[in-house]
Amino acid sequence: MEPVLAIGFWAALFIGSHLLISSAKIRPRLVRISSAQLYRGVYSVVALATFVPLVVVFANHRHAGPILWYLRGEPPIRWLAWLMMLIALIVLIAGFAHPNPGSIGAQSSNAVTGVLKITRHPSFVALSLFGFAHMLMNGWLGDLIFFGTFPVLGIVGTLHQDHRKLRELGESYREFVAQTSIIPGIALLQGRQRWTSADNSWTAVGAGAAATLLLLVFHPRLFGGNPLG
Predict the structure, then answer these.
(1) Domain check: are 87 and 123 in the same one?
(2) Residues 95 and 185 in one domain
(3) Residue 36 forms part of a structural domain
(4) Which one, of 14, 59, 22, 56, lies nearest residue 152 by Cα?
(5) Integer angstrom CA distances of residue 165 from 6, 20, 32, 172
(6) Which letter does DSSP use for residue 140 in this model?
(7) Which whole-number Å values give the CA distances from 172 to 82, 100, 108, in the listed order?
(8) CB of 34 within 8 A of CB of 171?
(9) What is the domain count for the chain?
(10) pTM, full prediction
């Protein structure tokens, strides 16, 4: 199979399987005939069974297809990409302390604290920022399909999860949605939330900064080339 098509095939399978197995029709049936814990195991196996081949195909065919843009020689764009990665890591780590109540294993609650005041889907936002940052630095078609998988999953996943949880949790999750936003900062700008000192997570900021520095140092050794390249 042509490399770009192969990357696109596994990317579509990875996203499609995620949405199918967690859909409002399929997920309750799987949980009913097995258990919530077994469902999580099946979900993880399916994710790995589609994600690993996607990574392998991409790793063997980096920079496949025509190049649509080349921004690696632009220092402001490179620093923008690293700023996006820094924010992504901070948001991801903060999301572990304050997970969306619709996340797997999270407790159902409409309490809004910490990073949830910025976005109700911190993990999906982090995933999207990761993808967009790498798309800036990798303008080849195959690369764009691979890294574009993450923001597509992040954006579609937020809508998909909200729709499912509104059906499952009803009014509790509806109140949570009304108090928060998908797009970072909108709930704060609209006055639906108010940031306080208690919401600061310096641990997440410090851990995110440390992780970013480690990536700056080890990215060329682990993935070759320049950071984010």
Answers:
(1) yes
(2) yes
(3) yes
(4) 14
(5) 33, 15, 17, 10
(6) B
(7) 37, 13, 8
(8) no
(9) 2
(10) 0.86
Pair 90, 37 in one domain: no
Q: Work out the angle at residue 190's Cα, subtended by the Cα atoms of residues 186 and 196, and round it to the nearest 5 degrees.
A: 80
Residue 91 is which amino acid? V
Query: Residue 4's pLDDT band (boundaries 50, 70, 90)?
Result: very high
Q: What SS3 state is found at 8?
A: helix
Per the CB < 8 A criterion, the answer to whether 137 and 72 are in contact is yes
Give the span between the Cα atoms of 3 and 61, in whole angstroms. Answer: 6
Question: Do 42 and 76 belong to one domain?
Answer: no
The answer to the question of residue 155 being in a domain is yes
Q: Quick check: 215 pLDDT over 80?
A: yes
**CB–CB of 204/143 below 8 Å?**
no
Which residues span the domain enclosing 50?
1-61
Q: What residues contact residue 130 under an 8 Å CB cut-off, 6+ apart?
A: 84, 85, 88, 147, 150
Residue type, 166: L
Q: Which residue has the higher pLDDT, 206 or 30?
A: 206
Q: Is 129 inside any structural domain? A: yes
Name residues whose C-beta falls within 8 Å of residue 198's C-beta, 6 or more positions apart in sequence: 113
**Angle of helix 122-137 versus helix 141-169 axis, rounded to 10:** 170
* Widest distance between CA atoms in the chain: 55
How far, in Å, CA of 98 to CA of 118, rounded? 11
* pLDDT value at residue 208: 93
The predicted-structure confidence for 127-178, as pLDDT tens digits, reads as follows 999 999 999 999 999 999 999 999 999 999 898 888 888 887 788 889 889 9
Map residue 156 onto helix, strand or coil: helix
Structure tokens at 100: 């969306």
Residue that wins the pLDDT comparison between 35 and 209? 209
